[in-house]
## 1
Amino acid sequence: MARLSYLKALQRALIDEMSRDESVFVLGEDIRVGVNNVTTGLLAKFGPQRVLDTPLSEQGFTSFATGAALAGMRPVIEFQIPSLLFLVFEQIANQAHKFSLMTGGQARVPVTYFVPGSGSKTGWAGQHSDHPYGLFAHVGVKTVVPATPADAYGLFVSAIREDDPVVIFAPAGSLGVRDDVDLETLSAVPLGVGTIHRPGSDVTVVAVGHHVQTALAVADQLEGEISVEVWDPRSLYPFDWSGLAESVNRTGRLVVIDDSNRHCGIAGEILATAAEQMRLTAPPRRVTRPSGAVLPFALALDLACQPDAEQLVTAVREVAKD
Amino acid sequence: MEASLYRMVRLIRRFEERCVELVRSGDIIGGIHPYIGQEAIAAGVCAALRFDDIITSTHRGHGHVLAKGADPIRMLAELCGKVTGLNRGRGGSMHAADFSKGIFGANGIVGAGGAIATGAAWAFLRQGGGDKVAVSFFGDGAVSQGVLLEAMNLAALWKVPVLFVCENNGYATTLTVSESVAGTICGRASAFGIPSSTVDGMDAAVVFEAASAAVESARRGEGPAFLECLTYRFDAHHTWEHKARVRYRPAEEEVSGRLRDPVEIAGGRLDPAERESIDEAIEALLDEAVAFATTSPAPDPSTALDYLYGSAVLP
Ligand SMILES: Cc1ncc(C[n+]2csc(CCOP(=O)(O)OP(=O)(O)O)c2C)c(N)n1
Ligand SMILES: [Mg+2]
């Protein structure tokens, strides 16, 4: 067993895939120095043809990667901050994502977009605190949000091997997570397969990204009172509906915790599908950011907009009562 | 003019040094992008502006906001996330704004301000509001952003009274200009037929001269202008570097880059007694600002979504 951090797991995945497959290369801002601590040391290992520091031309280099992918490469793009995904939404949603269908299956676009540090970093305010995974899931771009070091490794590897564009969100709140991991067992985690982090029998809590940790803490806190199952979708699109149904059909009760805006968010999608297809014995609940939230700067305001353990405890107690 | 230029350069320097201390003490969360070393640009350009002109700024925006006339006391309260701040604690370092002073905001997205400034300046023309101009400040990193180049094209096509000010400090975070800019920075302006010049960005008087000429031509209806100011960032890209200690600038360069100090250049032109009295007044002002910022109330969490919509109604 070794102590593996989430960031080191991401780095290991990238190194393993670049070593395994010559066509994988990485580009992004300040990645030689590695200001986000994922690409540190890669330049020395793989050279400047495979580790490209880009100018601040996100729209250009995102479609540049699409072109390289169409020509047979497997680009991995690091986006320094989550809001850059708004800037390149056209390049991902309307270009990379659509090539396969629009060309009648002639073209593949195996590009991986990764964001180390999505969501609020506390104090980075309005334009640096978004968590826009729901947008990508909505338009049908494959979207993953790993919560643990092993999943960060496994989902990053799968994303790079996937023949389609995949966005991988590494929540700021997960970057400090460390686990004891047998390095030999690290392996690809398939897209679209959820996992139970903690079994329980009364309420299924679906937790996205760093809120897996919140949900585990809440499950501990409520032990003896309510038995909470913590279920992590890992991929938001494709989504493991049968895995979720297996859990919800057992517990009959569902709460979702999701650090993105409520209106049209992924939590709403999960509740709707559960209501349509699963055996719920009580109305489900969701704990999210407020609808349309723009994160204000001041600490108390920033925190007031993010879902937290207290709100989750309340929601779990409410569904358990119903 | 010499005294007022020095006063602003020195105020920005000391304001930023105080901010770095407040980041260390935890009074400012999220850190800042210090403007230390680049003060002469904000001071020189804004000295060429009138009260009713407008600016857009960047992630490294404190200097521009102060030089355009924001109250340093309310600015510091904003950085400390207080209700008494310019943005009522909602914006922080990267979004500080004061529309009453023509400050259309710092901006967290590189290159975003150029098009906003161009639209504002065009609106002034349309509204027949006299001869107001807009200035957009941005770094060398922004000249690789599509939106800035698109804005320059619009500004030139429609003869908009906007001044583009590029602060070339040699780096976009860790990337050097030579690794990121093909051709030249001013060459981008030339491509759109926008007159440009490159000046010493360490000397506020030089910047003031050049900016005054560009602003006057914009006021006369001659369209946009572009100014490249050569400078050096004395401190970190962002205060997180104080802990992370990433290395990307050669040590000799860090020494030589600081040899010409905008504070000393502007201060050297003053009589020492005058300089001292300016310095004292600035210290007193900043002491007051720190006391005000640290003792002002934080916003109430129940008001987190106040101001989300201009209509003041939450849907
Ligand atoms: C569009 C965009 N890309 C990337 C970033 C992250 N980022 C913030 S500042 C910065 C470097 C900016 O360099 P420059 O424009 O030269 O300004 P300087 O920091 O040197 O003042 C980067 C990459 C961002 N905020 N916005
Ligand atoms: Mg720069």
Note: The interface with chain B takes residues 29-30, 32-33, 35, 53, 55-57, 59-60, 83, 87, 121-128, 290-294, 296-301, 303-305 of chain A (CB under 8 Å).
## 2
Amino acid sequence: MEQRYYQKEFETMPLEEMRKLQSEKLVKQVKHVYDNVPYYRNLMDEKGVKPEDIKGIDDLHLLPFLTKADLRDAYPYGLLAKPLEECVRIQSTSGTTGRRVVAFYTQKDVDLWEDCCARAIIAAGGTNKDVCQVAYGYGLFTGGPGLNGGSHRVGCLTLPMSSGNTERQIQFMTDLSATILCCTPSYAAYIGETLKEMGYGPDDIPLKAGIFGAEPWTEEMRCGIEETLGIKAYDIYGLTETSGPGVSFECEEQTGMHVNEDHFYAEIIDPDTGEVLPEGSKGELVFTSLDKEAFPLLRYRTRDICVLSRKKCSCGRTLIKMSKPMGRTDDMLIIRGVNVFPSQIETVLLNEGYQPNYQIVVDRVNNTDTFEVNVEMTPEQFTDKVSEVLAKEKALANAMKTMLGINPAVHLVAPKTIVRSEGKAVRVIDKRKLV
Amino acid sequence: MAIKQLTVFVPNRQGTLVSITNTLAAHNINIRALSIAETEEFGILRLIVNDEATAERTLAEADYLIKVVDVVGVKIGDEPGKLTAALDVLDKAGINMEYLYAFMARTEKHAYVVLRVEDNAVAENALVNAGFHLVTEADVNKL
Ligand SMILES: [Zn+2]
């Protein structure tokens, strides 16, 4: 019989038992951190919280938050909770947005992380008969090592390709009949396009599933990848701060990602007040590592905006599900009192047949926020009639009003005119902050 | 019969118009007719040139947003009231006109006018039946 779960006991654990397990782990973890991480001990002392105050998971809200700024301040060893001689590995972020994060792992931490990735691969239908092509980058980036380890645990024949060299990827994929592809969604789309150009249809390659993460992607992208590669495309979530990919993963239902909550406890908070919000609310995702040893972050604010749900899942897992992140708190704009995420603008553009090449410009004139969205037109959308261009702008503004609740001024602009910095389009210009 | 109009999107940024005409001049392209429609945010430049294919390629390579559309050219006798007569013909035929503009040069007997209508063939028929002569690509190249 096909294996449905990697660690059934935890993946299908009744809620009551799960809460008991989480409580036990948390009490131990808080003591471990308090005793070994002076940086966090100071934060707890400042807040007047003692390890004894944390008697179970219901007391979690008493603990102080950790933010990216704390990680920066404590770089590199300030949050380390184990002596270096017990650590066996580091992983690191690229550091493109500020100082890089360096995370430490004991062997037990690596094991736990690889177990989480193994759960994701099994949930995507993986077995020891599969050939798993890992085309995430290897090295400091967590993607390659994480899925590589998970793939070993499942017993797949693992192809440690790393990213890039698409021709070689395709050669191994076809010659060795890869059935599972792990990489970023944009690279999966690129591989799909290249295969298409080479004359391969979805039925000509044995791929059946893909596990894609490490960057935001839309449902439209999922549909496109599933069609060109002839696979089911599964989302996977994680961040270096918590270990890497595998913090949560999608099952066959593809309606959100099950959080491995026996290891990572998820909360949703109001990003402005820090208040914990009830299940089903949209807010900032916060993770607490319940049993990591070397780099155990408590109440780490991910800055990702999403929703948690305990709705019963047809796969049989009882693990809570998180939605795909809808944006980041650092992206969130408050315009005329309304929360606006660039990702919402992007969704409207894709729905209305535009490329997601846009720029939001916010300013304040006479104490009122101005809200403009510049959108690049394609030659197909351009017309010689002024009235038609204006009508398109109006239609886009209306669609955005429906989505956001406030009305932007939409300006259609020529392709490639939106400012790019180091190849990345500058999505938001908030002139209010310059005053 | 229709003639080709090159349409260029012009952001309201200083110098854009000049750089477009400079680009064309550098490739020996002569502008035969020109009009620009402007809003506060952008302009749409419409051009009839002697070498439409080269102009299109040149501007596309310079990353301008362009579109080629078919328009009707009509020869208007160089005397008062002739343009009104042509417009009357279209009006009576129930043809909606989006915009019109004139060629810069004229022949001894005629001014050339560009008409942007919904249905080129219908407009052309109506004008020819009323005794008007249409501007052909060959006429444009001769100017
Ligand atoms: Zn499920």
Note: Chain A has a mean pLDDT of 93.
